[in-house]
Specification:
6 helices
Amino acid sequence: MSMSRHWIGAAFGRPNSFPGTVGPFAPIGLLIATIAATLLCGGGTAHSGPCTSQIEHLERQIGHASSSAKSGPTAPQSIAAQLHYQPTPETVRNAERKANADAAAALQRARQADTDDNPAACAKALDEAKRHWFIPA
């Protein structure tokens, strides 16, 4: 019998026992399995930075806003638009790509500042991301 099967058999039952019966060490095995699962699965959320909750809230707001077909990050109006030039499909796509990239970069800077425990930089990056998405500060 392999070593792992030995420990499983010792914790949850005897090798020659009837199906459905458990050994006297089953509660201990269950406790060990529960603790191991908690440590393995819950380790990533144990540490939160100074503005983790604000980042999560903003991501929920962005997710809610992006469910609409005409929503998305925005960028300032170009000079060509101010001169009443009609945009081409290519300039619209380029502007959308740039706005998406700028908004994603601002959110990434907020995450990095949160990881670095820098609340001032995180707040600044979150404000910038909110401006890109037209979310009130």
